[in-house]
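Section handout 9: paired folding examples.
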Amino acid sequence: MSTEKILAKLDSAFKSIVDVSELNEGILQTAKFDAFVDAMQKRTRVIPDARFLEMEAHKQEVDRVGFVDRVLSKGIKDDGSTEGSDSWKNPTINSNKLIAQELRGQVALTDRALRRNIERGDFEDHLVNLFGEAAGRDFEEWAILANEDDLTEAGILEMTDGWAKLAGNHVFGQGSNSFDPDNPEEIFDALLDAVGKEYLVDRSEWRFYVPYEVEDGYRDSLKARGTALGDTAQTTADQLVYKGIPVVYVPLIDRSKQPDETGTEQGVGRIAMLQHPDNMVWGVFHEVNIERYRNAQERRTEFYLTIECDAHYEDEDGAATAFLDKESVS
């Protein structure tokens, strides 16, 4: 197949998933946007559990409404009268904001790779999945580990604060009143103690999100007990549970920085989190842009992705983070 025919087929395939303007910029159509968001969740652990909002604007409120004080009172007073206007109770209304921030990614596909995809007829899915899965991994890292006070981080993690830092309850593996950061059960207990018990109504809905060392250490501690549960933890990949709460290994947490060779703490350090997934909210502004550039000299076509997104909590007081390497956090 000639180069001209390849490019003609590429143009046809590309235009079928985007509306190409005179500026050579495309916005994913609705169906492909949904497929892109699905692809973002394929190889991540926290993002599929968390609550997704399609953002219709660059700023979107995440509201919570509740009644803090007692709302019930006597139907009839002692003197036989009913309660007056002084018995009205007003709800407490709070809100957080998702503020879409621009992230960019780029990928280059060689003519040979494009030809093979076009000949199979699944170029659309290939492009959406390629970007979606890669963006999902990086977004999960950003949503969890971002720390805008970390001046040592030159990448996207310095743009905002992520779920780890935004959690309303922090416990520390260093300093006074610390837990043993090498003991998984002490980490779990410290997180449970930090969260208000009114939040822990159904523990099965909560999650301990942990790095590999914590999940593996918990398996080893169960094995050491010499019970059937310990044998199962050692010989299978079954879901671990601590006091009714599933323990979930999150590979992206392992990207978190540890102290460097001088002992200087970077990033948020090693962490573990106690979360109700529905309390973790993330959003993508509905205009996901893809720009295409033909690099004839390198015999490849380059694609540039622009995505605007953010992550926050509905109620940060219902979340806890254990910082294994720190005794405080900014």
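Moving on to protein 2 of 2.
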Amino acid sequence: MKIAILGFGVVGRGAYEAILHHACGVQVKRILDLRVPEGMEDVVTTDYNTILNDPEIEAVAEAIGGLHPAYEYITRAIDAGKHVVSANKHLICHYYRDLHERAAARGVDLRFTPSVGGGIPWLMNLRRTKRCDRILSLCGIMNGTTNYILDSMLTRGIDFSDALKEAQALGYAEADPSADIDGLDVQRKCAISASIAFDAVLTEEDVPTFGIRHITKEDVARFDAMGYVCKLMAFAEERDGRITASVEPYLLPKTATEGAVRTNFNCITLVGERVGRLSFIGQGAGSAPTGMALAEDLIDIATANGKTPVSLTPAVIDGTIRPHMYYVRTSAKLPSACILHRMEQAIITKPMTPADIHALYTTIQATDPDAFIAGLDPDVASDARLC
């Protein structure tokens, strides 16, 4: 099968290398990019029409990123009867229903395995598991940038700003890191994962989200002294047809599986009714891992492997599921009814739902924009020192 790669940056180059050296049955005929590298004039083009109008090209791999012009390129490819694979979680999350409906109408495949977890075979195994099982819940570390920052703050006692600068220098974080540190990247990955797991379409707005922008080294040291670690976690759960999802910094025992995940690694877990708990750990980003996953989607299309039906039923969201306690570090005065225990410069709340804590946070922000909130794992919440 002859294919085209859209974008020759980190992910696009990684996919090209994987196909060039390992992908049996797939050949890169064209690459779309703004610049034509020396020696690749026969492959790289700046004109998308040369790809769109080439009947030999059966699939395109989108590795541009962002919403536009990626959306226009993908939809034009689908309308031309070409299969599409993408690593673009923003695009897939934002246009989940639209892209699936377009692909179904044209009878082409739409795949996006690398959009969540990079090189980790997360979405592939999520789909595989749900063929014979019911997914009860999913959770995990879905962003390597924030995990690197939190791990560096813990292991070396450095400030958030210094850890972020290191992540940027290493290429883990963009010049504008907002999508990572404000949790928006994980929010999109959580929505995509939950949409697949529960056969219902979740949007970004359905996933209330806290990031780590305001965490301090004093917060991290306080958690560490008590034997806990903070991770940015995604959660999604289905009960009786109702779904709740959220993204938040979360305190875990150091002995927890996620608590031991270091540097820029991801750890994503599903819980099935029959299979129980399955966790997937590995590189969640990077040229080789993500490019390889993109190439694997293309090979699956070429070999007609693993195509599964997709449900586009609107999700029934219930923000009252899964109440738990929260750590809140703020100078704002909080309603006494929500306070379980007071700590130095922080409080532990009584069990609250994600909807409740977000409503409280909106009030807090009016007087304390630097407030930090983290959910408490049940093992942490049972610690007598907190209660």
